[in-house]
Amino acid sequence: MAGTAGNIDWIYLNLANADEVRVGELISAEAGGLPIYRVMALSNGRAWLKNLADGGDRVTPLSDFHWKALPSATP
Length: 75
What we know:
The chain is mostly beta strands. Helices cover 0% and strands 44% of the residues. It has no helices and seven strands. The protein has a seven-stranded antiparallel beta sheet, with no helix packed on it. It starts with a strand and ends in a 6-residue tail after the last strand.
């Protein structure tokens, strides 16, 4: 499943696959939804994130996110 928002193409995450998300990728709870986060680190099912809109940091379970930007959309 995929979606497009603005200039970013999104793909649905299959979090059953442990390698689905990597450091440096963009993720969001909704395809094209805000906020959009850059993954800074991963550990034990949690992600250290940087909010692209306001620069804020947070640590959140990966299960809270269902979409990631396709690699061609990740600057």
